[in-house]
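Q: What structure does this chain adopt?
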Amino acid sequence: MSVQSSRVKSISCLVDTDVAIDFLRRRDYAQKLLEHWAGEGLLAISTLTHLEIYQGMKVGEEGATNAFLDGLMSVVVDVPIARRAGRMLSELRSKGLTIGIADAVIAATALQFGCPLLTNNVEHYPFDNLKVIRGLAV
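A:
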């Protein structure tokens, strides 16, 4: 009989705001997608995504929204993530490209933790070293 050592699950992916909103709106693909990735490890979300979700939350959605967000690992936007995002924005600007600050912070968060980003907004993340997984592909 072999004994398996218990190990802490690692982050399987960072969930982008659009996929989180689709999950909250009960879109079938998002339900299946997050179920799949939850089987691979921890689902994480940036604290910036909390802000973006609350910004668009409708009356009566707070309970379900809180329950969903509280079930994910929330990654705080700390100094290393902020600095990384700033450098990424600067590099893009030098190439004549611009993206939103929120998208840069979310991308920097995924890179900081070495995990893929689950999104349908692939065009928002033009970073060669970022692994982006299109949500609707599953």
